[in-house]
């Protein structure tokens, strides 16, 4: 027997011996995919426990049966295709079927494998967003506090000028309490009132920030806490709603708008007292000093207004709403972070494609070996035995047919007309007598 015939014979024997194993592998992969599909689809269904259970079981069984049948058909038919057109057609069908399997099963398998981790990642990312929002709201609320040093310096400067004018007449040249001292004291008092307003908002802002920190701590604990992810997600949503309220409250607590209005009032609402000097010269000097004070107040008002406008121009905290995700939705949104889980989920569904490829290669090698075989090598012992049995059966039927045919009596004929028997030696009369008794 030639080497090609021996190889073809061995490959055929191996294929026959591995048929049961092939069916077992396909059934096991289909069953495994069905189990993980059941776990994944169960997280998507709502309703009573009985309805969810039966619906998930029916879907997973349908997926398992469909996968087993699909790969069984391909592993039987694709290796037998000899022409390129038929083989390409089945390869295209296999590609379409693989996409359908990924759509109906693989993503659910991935949800079963990494769904909880994906939901936890969604909670962690949402927590980071809320932390940034709280810090931004806190910073916006504290923005007005940055104006305190300027306000305190202006208040102290007006108070010091009033004291100097009263003690030594530093501005008008005449000491004593007059209209200039009164105006300076008035401006110093307005600055102190604005300072007290800003200082009063500090405690409110700090209280709101501490409440937000407590909600963030609770949310952080829910992200890493053990237990069912669905229950933790619900509690996380409740904490997120409460934190959103705190952030909105901090946004409204900002004193910057009030500072802006107060700064504008310093200039617009400036009221200078009438000069009360005892002489025209003193009264003129008082008017000149009050005009200077008016210019200083306008400059201070503009500086505070510009600073408050910068604070108000800071971006506001965008309104955020926490959206809970199921495990299947989370594993789709964060698919790039769970590539190993996706690879395992897809592999368990598409691994039979490797078996189909192996069978195609083996059948191709077997056919190439058969093409190089002699006619005698193509006949097996079983074929010879079956041929002998068929030959004996045909002979038996022929003999039976001959036996059933009637025998016709021969007509007398002259010795000259009788044909001589082949291989028969004619005897003479004397020889006949010696033979006959």
From TrEMBL:
The chain crosses the membrane at residues 21-39, 51-75, 87-108, 342-362. The keyword Membrane applies. Residues 404-437 are annotated as: Disordered. The keyword Transmembrane applies. Keywords: Membrane, Transmembrane, Transmembrane helix. This is DUF4407 domain-containing protein.
């Amino acid at each position: 027997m030639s080497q090609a015939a021996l190889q073809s014979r061995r490959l055929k024997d191996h294929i026959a011996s591995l048929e049961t194993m092939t069916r077992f592998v396909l059934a096991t992969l289909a069953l495994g995919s069905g189990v993980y599909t059941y776990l994944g689809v169960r997280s998507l269904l709502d309703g009573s426990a009985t309805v969810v259970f039966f619906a998930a079981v029916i879907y997973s069984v349908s997926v398992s049966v469909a996968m087993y049948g699909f790969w069984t058909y391909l592993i039987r038919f694709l290796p037998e295709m000899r022409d390129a057109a038929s083989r390409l057609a089945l390869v295209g069908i296999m590609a379409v079927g693989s996409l359908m399997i990924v759509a109906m099963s693989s993503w659910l398998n991935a949800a079963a494998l990494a769904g909880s981790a994906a939901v936890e990642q969604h909670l962690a990312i949402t927590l980071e967003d809320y932390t940034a929002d709280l810090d931004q709201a806190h910073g916006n609320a504290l923005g007005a506090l940055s104006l305190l040093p300027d306000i305190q310096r202006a208040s102290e400067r007006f108070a010091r000028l009033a004291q100097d004018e009263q003690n030594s007449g530093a501005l008008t040249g005449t000491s004593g309490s007059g209209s200039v001292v009164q105006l300076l004291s008035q401006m110093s008092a307005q600055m102190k009132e604005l300072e007290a307003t800003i200082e009063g908002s500090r405690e409110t802002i700090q209280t709101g920030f501490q409440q937000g920190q407590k909600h963030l701590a609770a949310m952080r604990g829910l992200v890493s806490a053990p237990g069912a992810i669905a229950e933790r997600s619900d509690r996380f949503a409740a904490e997120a709603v409460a934190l959103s309220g705190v952030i909105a409250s901090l946004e409204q607590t900002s004193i910057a708008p009030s500072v802006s209005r107060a700064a504008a009032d310093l200039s617009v609402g400036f009221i200078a007292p009438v000069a009360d000097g005892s002489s025209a010269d003193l009264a003129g000097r008082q008017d000149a000093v009050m005009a200077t004070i008016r210019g200083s107040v306008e400059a201070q008002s503009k500086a505070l207004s510009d600073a408050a406008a910068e604070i108000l121009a800071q971006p506001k905290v965008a309104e955020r709403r926490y959206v809970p995700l199921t495990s299947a939705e989370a594993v789709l949104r964060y698919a790039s972070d769970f590539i190993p889980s996706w690879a395992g989920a897809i592999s368990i569904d598409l691994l039979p494609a490797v078996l189909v490829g192996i069978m195609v290669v083996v059948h191709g090698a077997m056919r190439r070996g058969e093409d190089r075989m002699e006619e005698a090598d193509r006949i097996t012992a079983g074929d010879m035995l079956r041929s002998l049995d068929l030959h004996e059966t045909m002979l038996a039927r022929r003999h039976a047919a001959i036996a059933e045919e009637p025998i016709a009596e021969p007509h007398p004929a002259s010795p000259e007309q009788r044909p001589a028997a082949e291989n028969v030696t004619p005897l003479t009369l004397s020889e006949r007598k010696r033979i006959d008794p």
